[in-house]
Amino acid sequence: MMFRLEDIIAATGAKVIKNTTDKLGEYSFSTDTRTIEKGQIYLPLKGASFDGENFLSQAIDKGAEGCFITREDYPENAKLVFKVPNTLTSYMQLANYKRKKLNPITIGITGSSGKTTTKEIVYSVLSSKFKTHKTFSNHNNEIGFCETVMTMPNNTEILIVEMGMRGLGEIELLSKYSEPDYAVITNAGSAHIGRLGSLDNIAKAKSEIVKYLKPNGALIAQNNDRIKKFVTDFNGTKIYHDLNDIEIVERKPSYTKFLYKNCEYELNVEGDYNADNAVTAIELGYLLGMEYQEIYKGLLSYKPIEKRWETQDVKGLKIINDSYNANPESMKASVSTFLQLYKNPVIVLGDMGELGDYTDELHKCVGRYLSSLPETKNARFLTVGEYAKEIGEILENSAEFVKNFENNDEVSKYIIDNVDVGTTIFLKASRSMKFEEIIGKLEGEIKL
User: Fold this and answer.
1) Tens-digit pLDDT profile for residues 218-247
2) Phi and psi of 157, rounded to 5°?
3) Smallest Cα–Cα separation from 318: which of 336, 338, 340?
4) How many whole angstroms separate alpha carbon 426 and alpha carbon 346?
5) What are phi and psi of 36, to 5 degrees?
6) Overall CATH class of domain 310-443
7) What predicted TM-score, i.e. pTM, was given to this entire model?
8) Domain 103-300 adopts which CATH fold?
9) Phi then psi for 17, rounded to 5 degrees?
């Protein structure tokens, strides 16, 4: 969809400061002068360390037809200038305008963990029948929402919006501008507890997704009392589920077979938690009129995205990299899955971030959980970092072997010198730990 002048004004309420265009044009928008195209409108965004309005001249010199501004000055050679109070708000207003004009069935997905995976599974199912557009990767903030909608093809039937947050009010904002027909809350765990201060606040923040949920729509959420407490204002359909609602029939590396409501499904990925994530896609499929066989085939075609249980062979070692992100719930789930599937494994765990005052206790909590698993006694644990060390200290009396390292260089050297070819190694840590460096060092791409 291209925007006419009247569309832009209707969407944003912008004041036209200058208009010397000699045509009744239709416009698209760019927020980046590095990739801006001739004829586009430059929409400069602002952040803590940058101000897009400092690059107005570059945008116009590269062929932009016009620009948005919040202050008085603008390039003399700009043909079309819009003045607004806040450019990010205008960007979201434009996205909302397009969402309403094209009017796809919109699905919002949030949660402390698993939201990106759930989004991808839902997409795999729904796109097998409908023209479906989704949030790219984990671009789940306000800017990511705008990019998602602005790149949505005109024939889109279903729009899937992933919603992330760092504090209260952010999911509500995304809900306001996306106006979902269906909402998903994968869970409300301890991720971001350092910022939000309590599990109740986390559940409250995630539950903001129902603020602008269509009354005739549906909420699909984890069967969690905290979530239920904060979604009481939504009176539409509510579907709650958890692992107790599914029966795992078969577990193998890169494969799970399970039963849900007496129907059998398959996934080409391991993990009971992924079967639970798949329930969201199953329920959405049925709500949208899909048949069992269509949903079954859609689940079977799902493939995990990069750094989420990504498997590769490195110098005779099998590496499973699940280090895109980590929080206590995801670390417990993924490590327990790994322990169930592989004999005599090596598990490399790193620090989990954004846990604030709860950092020490939540790392210890992971250690206590893993020490309770019978498979732990046959596993070797290598921990990296100050806080992951606390996981290892608790595991010392229950695991086959535990050793802590200060950095990725040290643990890589240890693996090279002490781990036999043929061993499967699992990597799990927060993104800030940069565990891809370990793979690089093992491959010999980085000099030790």
Assistant:
1) 999 999 999 999 999 999 999 999 999 999
2) -100, -30
3) 338
4) 6
5) -65, 145
6) alpha beta
7) 0.89
8) UDP-N-acetylmuramoyl-L-alanine:D-glutamate ligase (3.40.1190)
9) -80, -35
